[in-house]
Amino acid sequence: MVGFILKRLVQSVFVMLAVAFLAFSLFRFVGDPVSQMTGVETSLEDQARLREELGLNDPFALQFIRFAGDLVQGDFGYSFRTREPIGEMLLTRLPATLELGTVALLISLAVGIPAGIYTALRPRGLVSQSILIGTLIGVSIPTFVIGILLIFLFGVQLGWLPTYGRGDTVEIGWWRTSLLSVDGLRSLVLPALTLGLFQLTLTMRLVRAQMMEVMRTDHIRFAIARGVPWRRIRYRHALPNTMIPVVTIIGLQFGGVIAFSIVTESVFQWPGMGLLFLESIRFVDIPVMSVYLVVIAFFFVFINLLVDLIYLAIDPRLRVRESA
Fold this sequence. Notes:
Elements: H1 2-26, H2 33-37, H3 44-53, H4 60-72, H5 86-121, H6 126-140, H7 143-157, E1 170-172, E2 175-177, H8 182-215, H9 218-225, H10 230-259, H11 262-267, H12 273-282, H13 286-314, H14 316-323
Antiparallel strand pairs: 1-2
């Protein structure tokens, strides 16, 4: 068990170093941040002095070493555009992104798992076929189109829900949440549905495929031959085996929801980290863009490590293999 954790930690360190290098090197070619920070009236001497102050004239290797070293120490640097600490900028917007991603994931699990079980147990039913067709249509439509359709229907035509922003928020220490106010919850509905629809489809189809595969295994057939009640076979024997691979996908889904919330946050003007990343692209704010990608990679690595540990805890075969 300890060897397994240490091996995963070493792998995580190398992954983070690779991501930091890619994030730092890719954004060297997106434009000159000095020209975005200054106007046409700024002299060439002032631009050169600013470039020197920002360390943009240093060799690439030295800039990367300084960037990686600051990240290890928890120093994310400063924004070229606002001169604010990037750590504070991300920390301010982190609650919005996490709440949106968590609610979207919960919606996908609350609907996707029961729907997957139902369509697996009744594959030829009319309701099951309708669900499969609906999910196929839903997964084929781009996320921003779904968001626009929801805005048009529930915001413009019916006027039931807000179409942008977080609404009223409540401060709990440094955490600003929209889950404790009615207006905040109403503002969360449309973006969470938009973001969670694709995850819902993926969860449902995965649970359906796994459930149908487990129902064809020998131990299920043996239980049927012994006369075990059908309900017990479904939910006591088949469902736990179905959920083992689903746990892995759920963890990766949460990382994907956090990473790919950019489009949803842009459509609904949700003040999260994804919207901050888009703003940094617009103003060629290289430090913010680089740190954002590293933070998202850290989410993926941490969640993947956590999922591996959960997988090891619930699957005895892995524990035996690691012990051997």
